[in-house]
Amino acid sequence: MGEHIGGGKIGMVSSSWPFGKLSINHDGITLDIGFRNAHLEREDIKSILLRRGLINKRFILLHENKKVKKVVEFWTFSPDPVLADFRAVGYSVNEEK
Question: How many domains does the chain have?
Fold first, then answer.
């Protein structure tokens, strides 16, 4: 459905913009940060949290896939298109104020 470029974190490994690529589809979400990638099936995802920081915005993927590191985050300066793509395929995103 949608692909977005930004930064990200999987486990303890981080990669800054423009090395993170988030792919959002009906069946799951994939985050590739160059050194590591994480694919989460739709049924693995418990919730998605949008945390707004001073510089960037973080989409935190809370999941139950034991084969994927617990911490999976995508960072962007433009959260609205990412949010729209999540909603377009039926994912709900909780916005933290």
Answer: 1
86's tokens: 């999540």
Residue entry with tokens 């995508």: 74
- Identify whether 79 is preceded by a cis peptide bond (ω within 30 of 0): no
Q: Which helix (H) or strand (E) holds 38?
A: strand 37-41
Domain with 7 in it:
2-96
Q: What is the pLDDT of residues 12-57, one digit of tens each?
A: 999 998 999 999 999 999 999 998 999 999 999 999 999 988 888 9
- Helix, strand, coil % in the chain, rounded to nearest 5: 15, 55, 30
Q: What is the pTM of this model?
A: 0.92
Q: What whole-number distance in Å separates Cα of residue 82 and Cα of residue 11?
A: 21
Instruction: Note the residue count of the chain.
Output: 97
